[in-house]
Design brief:
Layout (H helix, E strand, L loop, with lengths): L2 H13 L4 E6 L2 E6 L4 H10 L3 E10 L4 E15 L5 E5 L6 E3 L4 E10 L2 E11 L2 H12 L3 E3 L2 H29 L5
Parallel strand pairs: 4-9
Antiparallel strand pairs: 1-2, 2-3, 3-4, 4-5, 4-6, 7-8
Helix pairs in contact: 1-3
């Protein structure tokens, strides 16, 4: 069994009993919500889940490193042929990728004789699937690397800060030299 297969099997074992499913890919594996699983479908429907994360894990067996690229997608609920609503991954105009931390709480209230009362509460944490992989990978001795999308975002952010500092220095020098009105 290869190191990637061992990691995949360990993550699958850890995901048992959770709403996550682990599927192999040519680069490693994906961890996503099991939207089609009847065991979890009722809970997703009741909570009217509006977002779902897919965690793309890329592995490098030679160095025992892996990177996780999160993909946050919107869910839409559409009626099926039997009239029941089913979740469908939305084809959004933009899909968020990288290391995404999204948490939300949805509360439903009703107004009655006793006043306003909370009838339901649903929470969503996009990093729960990522945490499954991180915990298992560290336990098996894998090192985590930033994904390509994370590295690009980091480089763009650092470059922007450096350029803003340089622009501030140039404006300061011009102001001190009296070149600015």
């Amino acid at each position: 069994m290869s190191a990637t297969q061992e990691l995949l099997a360990a993550v699958q074992a850890r995901a048992m009993g959770t709403p996550y499913v682990v599927e192999p890919t040519p680069q490693g594996f994906d961890v996503r919500l099991a939207l089609e699983d009847p065991q979890w479908f009722g809970s997703f429907r009741e909570r009217h889940l509006v977002q779902a994360s897919i965690h793309h894990v890329r592995t490098n067996q030679a160095t025992l490193t892996c990177s996780i690229d999160d993909e946050l997608r919107n869910l839409t609920w559409q009626a099926g042929s039997d009239g029941r609503e089913r979740p469908v991954l939305g084809a959004a105009v933009s899909v968020a990728r990288g290391n995404i931390r999204s948490r939300s709480v949805r509360r439903t209230y009703s107004l009655g004789r006793a006043g306003m009362t909370q009838t339901s509460e649903a929470t969503f944490d996009s990093s729960a699937g990522r945490d499954l992989v991180v915990d298992v990978a560290k336990a098996l001795g894998w090192k985590l690397q930033r994904s390509l999308n994370e590295r690009i975002g980091l480089y763009v952010g650092v470059t922007t800060i450096v350029l803003l500092i340089l622009a501030g220095i140039v404006v300061g020098i011009l102001a001190l030299a009296g070149a600015l009105p």
